[in-house]
Amino acid sequence: xxxxxxxxxxxxxxxxxxxxxxxxxxxxxxxxxxxxxxxxxxxxxxxxxxxxxxxxxxxxxxxxxxxxxxxxxxxxxxxxxxxxxxxxxxxxxxxxxxxxxxxxxxxxxxxxxxxxxxxxxxxxxxxxxxxxxxxxxxxxxxxxxxxxxxxxxxxxxxxxxxxxxxxxxxxxxxxxxxxxxxxxxxxxxxxxxxxxxxxxxxxxxxxxxxxxxxxxxxxxxxxxxxxxxxxxxxxxxxxxxxxxxxxxxxxxxxxxxxxxxxxxxxxxxxxxxxxxxxxxxxxxxx
Length: 286
Ligand code: C2E
Ligand code: MG
Ligand code: MG
Ligand code: MG
Known about the structure:
Bound molecules: ligand C2E, magnesium ion
Order of helices and strands: HEEEHHEHHEHHEHEHHEHEH
Largest sheet: 8 strands, mixed, barrel
Strand order of the largest sheet: 1-2-4-5-6-7-8-9
Protein name: EAL domain-containing protein
Shape: globular
Strand content: 15-25%
Helix content: 40-55%
Number of helices: 12
Structural class: alpha/beta
């Protein structure tokens, strides 16, 4: 292909592209086709109340079943999706899909299950984001209490006034809000108190070292203490060992998520997993 192919917006392969550029080129072109090809799927990882063992929610984690490359994790394509703007339709697919999936699970008897969705900053900046979310809830009939958004501090700090007012509107609908990867970004506590976030999520980089690094143990402890005094729930992500869980329990961390309890699972495993398990009513889990 060359320029003479006409006035479309596609970028064409050039033989002198380096390997990285070539891989990106291939990915970008296939990413454009992934939605219509129905190549995205979500895996779900439970969040667990540490003291009761109840499941409080599941987090939806995006995967791309690439026709040639196999199952790709978000780190391999979310940055590209953000650069190309494709994160908007992909993110909309995730929201729609999660709402519809949750309604299906409710019909199968998993009532009051809350599902968390990771949001990219670009999504929140969309003019129609709030309307899109409201529409997805109305169209599927999902209770807003059964929906949660996870958003990083970095995203909030990029445009704090706008983002906080948007998050407050989502909260007003009844949607839960968590701050993801807490402790790794530059959040300012003065911004934190300006909106009614439900949960702080301690980043797994701290969690993985709580037993071996005094600094990481101190940071995790401080986040738990701060969350508790601000009346927020605190969840630790990336819990992989019994020792980490014991540490968190002792510090009175509310919830945990991680391979130690369960890896993310495909949707067909969720109902089986939940059979006989206690689900916490979202109303009381706030
Ligand atoms: P995150 O939201 O912080 O999700 C936690 C990541 O840690 C997930 O990786 C999860 O599979 C992994 N994880 C869970 N438990 C453990 C554990 O015990 N040990 C270790 N080592 N890892 C654990 P994943 O699924 O690859 O997702 C990576 C990131 O991609 C997510 O980080 C999130 O920021 C982003 N992401 C995932 N799905 C979406 C999506 O639908 N939209 C957007 N915009 N971003 C998404
Ligand atoms: Mg997350
Ligand atoms: Mg996280
Ligand atoms: Mg993380």
